[in-house]
Amino acid sequence: MSAIIIGDKIVHYEVLGRGKPILFLHGWVGSWRYWIQAMQAASTSYRAYAFDMWGYGETAKDEVFYSLNEQADLVNQFMNAMGIGKVALVGHGLGALVALSFAARYAYVVDRLMAISVPLSGEGLLDWLGDTSAVDFANRLLEQKPSSEAVRADISKMDMKAVMCSLEDLTSVDVPDMISKMTSASLAVHGLKDPLNTFSDLAENGNLPSMFHQITFDDSGHFPMLDQPNKFNRLMNDFLALPSGESPRQLSLKDEWKRRVR
Questions:
Q1: Pick from 74, 16, 6: which is nearest to 40 by CA?
Q2: How far is CA 98 from the centre of its chain?
Q3: Cα distance from N-terminal residue to C-terminal residue, the chain
Q4: Model-level pTM?
Q5: What is the pLDDT of residues 186-198, one digit of tens each?
Q6: Residue 188 and residue 166: Cα distance in Å, rounded?
Q7: 152: Cβ–Cβ under 8 A, 6 or more apart, which residues?
Q8: Residue 49 contacts by C-beta under 8 Å, 6 or more apart in sequence?
Q9: Burial 228-244 (b: 16+ CB within 10 A, else e)
C-alpha cells in the first residue's frame, strides 16, 4: 500500500506501469480496487494511478473535504505531489463528476477524459438513495456475481456522508454545460442497464463539442468496466491511443473495438 500526506491527512494510492500518466477515479461505492483490471490493461503503455478519494478506502474521512470541489482539488494536489503534468483522466460515477469539475478548472493539464456512468443531473437521486446503508446502496448498483467483489471488498470503509455530500452538490451542478465546454478529447460511456442513471443521448441538444463522443454498452449496468471488461478495456486503450488533439468520434462499436480506417 502506498500513501502520501496532503495537509495532515493520509491519501492512499496505487500505481502500475510506466509511461504517460493516467489517473483512475472511483465512483460512489467501493474504492480504487475495482480499477485493477483496467489499470493492468493501461499499464502496458501508461503509468496508471488510482487513489481513494476523501471518505473512501484507506484515505482519511473528514466531511470538510467531501464536496465535489474539494474532491477535484484532491486531484490537483495529488498530481502536484506525484509530479504529474498533463494527464489522462478516467472517472466513474462520482469520479466522472470530479474529473469534469477538475477539467473545468485545469483544462490545460487534461490531455483526455473518459467519463463513465456520469449522471447529467442530481434530480431525484437523493430521494432514490434515501437513508440507505452503504451495503444496500451497493446492492442496488451491483449484480451478484464474482466481478463485483472488488467493489464490495471496501464498502465497509466508505463514509456515506461523502456520498450524500456529493449528491447534494450535484443538484446545483450543470453537467451538460460542463460537457459542452470541454476542449480536450472526451468520451462518455454509459451502460443501458444502469439503475442510477437513465440513459440520455447527449447529442440530442445539438451542442456537443467536436472533441466529445458518447458510446453505450447495451449489456452493462452502472459498472461497464466490470460487466464487460474486455470490451471496456479495448475501448479505453483505443481512446488512449488516439494522438493528442484528435477527436474520439472516429471510435465506433463493432463486433470488436477497432479504430475506424479512413
A1: 16
A2: 8
A3: 45
A4: 0.94
A5: 999 999 999 988 7
A6: 20
A7: 30, 138, 142
A8: 13, 14, 15, 21, 22, 23, 24, 78, 82, 84
A9: beebbbebbbbbbebee
